Amino acid sequence: MEYSQQEAFERLPIPSALAKFILPAVLGQLASLILSLTDTFFVGRTGDTAQISAMTICFPILMMASCVSAVFAAGANVNVAAAISCHEQHRAKQFSAFSIYTASGIVVLLSLLLLAVKTPLLTLLGTDAASMGFCKGYLLWTFHVGCVPLAIATVSAQLFSAEGETRISGIGIAGGGLLNAVLDPIFVFVLDMGVVGAGLATCVSDYAMLFFFLVMYFRKRRTTVLSLHPKDYHAGDGIARLTLSVGLPAGLTMLMLNFCDFLRNYLLGTCGGQLELAAWGIVQKLGNAVMLICVGIAQGVRPLIAYNFAADNSLRLRKLIRGAFLIMYIYCILVFLCMFLFPSVWVRIFLTVDDAAATANRFLRLWIPCMLGMGATELFNAIFQSMGRWRIALADVLIAKGGMFFLMLLMRLLLGTTGVVLSQPIVDIGTGLVLLIIYLTILRRSPA
After folding, report:
1. How many distinct structural domains can be found in the chain?
2. pTM for the model
3. Helices vs strands, H then E, count in the chain
4. Which residues span the domain enclosing 160?
């Protein structure tokens, strides 16, 4: 590792170190935001409710591949940074090879499984005759063809970040998002492919990101501690255990939210119909877009925390955590105020159907308070994972996200579609407060 990278971990002033790691991570998440929102924007401009709802219905399925990628990306990120801190370059190579190859294999198996159960699964999620063909076409490109390059690119971005190569990480993800923004209008409107064209644009972007990271691996192969060589694939000596102990809470968070999305789509479809599904699809896209920045902040600070925790630099560690929380909450409060006070401004960007837009405005105001809890939850979980306290993050996933599943069922009976949407803010704000209490308790018991 070059001296400038080591300096960023150990000696660079706190604001500069946070900027070096957080800004590229946020840039990468902004690119993912562009990728997500351009699909919604251009498909929404078709004015076809069936195509808009198809994207909403497919979203939980696509998240399955993202869950797998998140497990190995988070696990590799923390453990590679810790291995570098302890000057164990050979283990850093093993963590990187294990994460990339295992993630790729699992998403291939998921793709094959989806082929066998696609039609009944889409029907369960609320697909009707009008949207079934759109759903299958969209999934062909985004899941079956694009799942492996997406997994490798996601893990690779976190591996380069763990090594201190934050610019490579940010450029790779950002480039894919910008390419998707260019291709979307061509495939959706010029080639008249609609939502299927949006899926094809996403697939091409995923392969472009994969190509970029492979080129970077090749160019830095003599100096990097990362490895793609099969000989470095190793699951023993704690490699698999440590990767999964850190990564599983991150992946299970996405998985549990995925199950909640399944249930939410089903409940909104049965309580309302395609109009409510289309409206929630816009809110879901907006919500995931603003949350990606929170994810970027948490991902950016994670290798810094892991490195300094492994190096037993507690004073710098606490300063990094305080700085990260300041950044997170300035952002979360600004987003909450903008979207709560002016929901129609954001909804109208993506939706032109008047009835659906009015419903989306109401849903957005009900949902957006959860930003105040989700930002804290993302950052606390990144902190606990980086410090080896993965059981706290895992308990948060199983209890809080599992509780939201049952709360949605109860709130649906009490308040209908309003209750279904309100369930997430209630759970997320409560979870954020509980994690704050746990963190302060740990802090009081730790040596100064």
Report:
1. 1
2. 0.77
3. 17, 0
4. 3-445
Closest CA to 245 of 93, 391, 124: 391
**Per-residue pLDDT tens over the stretch 177-236:** 888 889 989 998 888 888 899 899 989 999 999 999 999 988 887 778 888 888 888 888
Provide Rg for the chain, Cα atoms: 21
